[in-house]
Amino acid sequence: MSQAISQKNLSQQFVIDYFAEEKNISLQPSQVESIAKVAFKTFRYDEKVPYSFKAKDLCVEHQKEFNAAIKKVIVSASSPWQPQCETASKNQELFFNLIRGIVPPLGEIAKSPTLLKAVIWKKDSEVLGEAKALLQIIFEDIYAGMPEEFSLEDSFHYEAIVGDLLALLPFLRPESGTTFKIPIQINNVWELAEYTIEEISLTSKWLGSPCTAYGLKPKEDQVPPLLLYKGTTYPTDKGFLLSLLTDINPLSSVGNYIFKLCRKKVSKWLDVQTSHGQIKARVFGKSLGGALAWHTAIEFPNLIEKAIACSAPGFSSSSIKKIKKHNEALPEINFLSQTNDLVPYCDKVVEHKNIHYYEVISGANRAGLRAHAFMYSTHESTSIVRDTQIKENHPWIRKSISFIHGVISLVVFPIFLSLYIVYNTAHQATKLILKPIKKLTHTAFHYTNALFVRLLVFK
Q1: Do 154 and 195 belong to one domain?
Q2: Which residues of the chain have pLDDT under 70?
Q3: Residue 434: Cβ within 10 Å count
Q4: DSSP alpha helices (H): ranges in 145-227?
Q5: Within this chain, do residues 384 and 431 fall inside the same structural domain, yes or no?
Q6: Which of 35, 265, 352, 409 is most buried (most C-beta within 10 Å)?
Q7: Domain tally for the chain?
Q8: For residue 184, which of 157, 169, 163 has the smallest C-alpha distance?
Q9: Do residues 422 and 367 both lie within one domain?
Q10: What's the pLDDT score for residue 448?
Q11: Which domain holds residue 436?
Q12: 385 and 443 share a domain?
């Protein structure tokens, strides 16, 4: 062990030494720092050390116990996927860099006006097409790079990467009837399965632009169907206003309102695709989409095999009652939260053998909203650790974040709701007025055209 290391950073030195000796790998400084924090929390809990005991109080004699804590929390020390993709356009290159955690300068982003316009002003099918084509290339690259045999650690990391990318797909507005090839683990073997996409409108037309989910129907038997939920989306996408409203609804937990509206549609789709539970589905989502994913898992445990909720808020009191009701029948629910992301601190956590909490650590960690928006699992330098002390995970931070979210919702929700009602009423009224005008114009054109043809004939 290095003698120059300060006492304050001894926990980080333990992490560096552990991975150098046990795994023969070196980690990025941000990974070392984050893993050391999680391991120290576990060390203190397992060794029954007083809460007042800080990292600066560690000494060399604690290394064995600290290494045991590292071993307990670590799931995957480094990413097994090293991208070999080739991009075909500037937009694809920009997307690909963002996925890998490489943020270009603002000046470079400003050079892509079509991309900015597609996000904030008007849907651009060409830009969306480029992104979907890149995502397909990435899926195929992940599968091609998989070794014939790999460890459980690598397999879980691949599952996290694919899950994160599947949670991204709904934001790209894939068209119904199109196909995607996706790496899927079936009976501990990875396959590149072909799926047909079906768009599912979760809300009624009278509510305006609908929130949507995407059902992926497998081409082959015994391949699980996939249900992908979209999180809070960008202004030019479907369901933008409704997704904002359900995020800040003070009378309900995140996603609960939309799930109540779409429950029957989701149930019908799952019944058909799973042959009433003979083969179970997997469900994915990010943020709001992640909340909808776990809502689905606890509502239809007999139809769901697994749910992966990326950067998702926690459970409400009513959902915890459902979890206790199903208990043994509950499917596997994996929460993947990113270091420094505060959204997962909203609402409550549950200790259950089928509910697992993981922290994804990047070599390029972000803060604030960027920590929530980025996809750490797809970065080239990534570690995944498990949270072994759910109840000990900064309860005061969880209560504070939940309280702040509630206060902001009480203030902002009435304003957004008023704007939404005005906008939607005007939009629906315009449709009602324009529809008969269009019909009348079409009829007038039809008869004028017929009269003109007759005049020509008789002439």
Answers
A1: yes
A2: 1-8, 106-111, 121, 389-394, 427-428, 431-432, 434-459
A3: 11
A4: 152-168
A5: no
A6: 35
A7: 3
A8: 163
A9: no
A10: 55
A11: 411-459
A12: no
Same domain? 229 vs 117: yes
The pLDDT of residue 199 is: 96
Rounded distance between C-alpha atoms, residue 155 and residue 99, angstroms = 20
Q: What is the dihedral of CA 408, 414, 418, 421, to 10 degrees?
A: 100
Q: Is the pTM of this model over 0.85?
A: yes
Query: Helix H segments across 240-356?
Result: 240-247, 256-273, 288-299, 317-326
**34-61: string of b/e by CB count within 10 Å (b at 16+)?**
bbbbbbbbbbbeeeebeeeeebeebeee
Is 267 in the same domain as 306?
yes
Last residue of a domain, one of 393, 421, 441: 393
- The number of helices, as runs of H, and strands, as runs of E, in the chain is 14, 10
Contact 167, 153 (CB under 8 A): no
DSSP assignment of 106-133: HHHHHT-HHHHHHHHTS--HHHHHHHHH
How much is the pLDDT for 140?
96
Overall residue count recorded for the chain in this entry = 459
Q: Provide the edge-to-edge strand list for the sheet that holds 212-218.
A: 74-76, 382-386, 355-362, 332-338, 304-310, 281-286, 226-229, 212-218, 189-201, 179-186
For 262, the token pair is: 């779409």
Structure tokens at 189: 């073997």
Is 20 inside a domain boundary?
yes
Q: Is residue 271 part of a domain?
A: yes
Contact 59, 67 (CB under 8 A): no
Q: Are residues 113 and 255 in the same domain?
A: yes
Cα separation, 349 vs 314, in Å, equals: 6
For 459, the 3-state DSSP assignment is coil
Boundary (domain end) residue, out of 44, 76, 108: 76
Which residues partner with 334 through β-bridges? 308, 356
Task: Indicate whether 243 belongs to any domain.
Answer: yes
